[in-house]
Amino acid sequence: MVKNVHGHTLDILGQSILAGRYAVGASLPPEPLLCEEFGVSRTVVREAIKSLVAKGLLFTGPKVGTRVLPDAHWNWFDPDVVAWQAQCGLTPEFLKDLQELRRVVEPAAVRLAAERATADDIAQIEEAYAGMKKAVEEGGDYVTYDMRFHQGLLQASHNRMLIQMSKALNALLRTSFEISTRIKDGTKNSLPLHRAVLNAVISHEPAKAERAIMVLIEGASEDIDQVLASRKKLPVVSGRPTPIKTQPKPRATSKLSVRTKGVSLAKTH
Known about the structure:
Layout: H1 5-18, H2 31-38, H3 42-54, E1 58-61, E2 65-68, H4 79-88, H5 92-116, H6 119-138, H7 143-156, H8 160-181, H9 186-202, H10 206-229, E3 255-258, E4 265-268
Antiparallel strand pairs: 1-2, 3-4
Helix pairs in contact: 1-3, 1-4, 2-3, 4-8, 5-7, 5-8, 5-9, 5-10, 6-7, 6-9, 7-8, 8-10, 9-10
């Protein structure tokens, strides 16, 4: 979706703050300079700043101007803030907070889903799982269907507050899912874990569903720990989800193995 001038300006300013271009406690440049830099009107700049104040990134006041607030004030449940962090680059602290949040929220939500899921809820989660399975087998967009799977579980809880959290959680969870797609066999190994969660919800077994989602979450934590331990640069999550590729299946071939001592020939198929 192409963003309008306001949305584009908001993204640039938001990413600049999360990237550290404007330090905590520092003042933003005066409005005329921002207008000139972005090529937009003063109204657009003011609206963008107002949005950033609402998201907890900025503070405005008389005699102090517009200043950047510490990240403790930022609204980490705002999908824009999460997206800007992902685009600027994930950090170990961000991923640690994400995994702790998953351990708190998802088991309780899945337990409720196992108690309350309707036939329509289960059909939507089944559809998401089918998309994940197809991506693993044939390649393609795994992450989008993975997000739909987890969103479906939150919807199936029929708890209004959890449902309202789903949009923000999706933005957070995508960062974890993107890491799994970068690990060899990560998505393939997680697929049966998702199936176990879904089966427990279908059979309306709350305790079993809760245990299954914890296994899934711990698997994701291990993926993240593996990436962190490798000391490789953490992935930048932006734009469309990263599609996964399937490994080409080896063709059946006949080959001769010859032993150097003796004249033993073995044919394998």
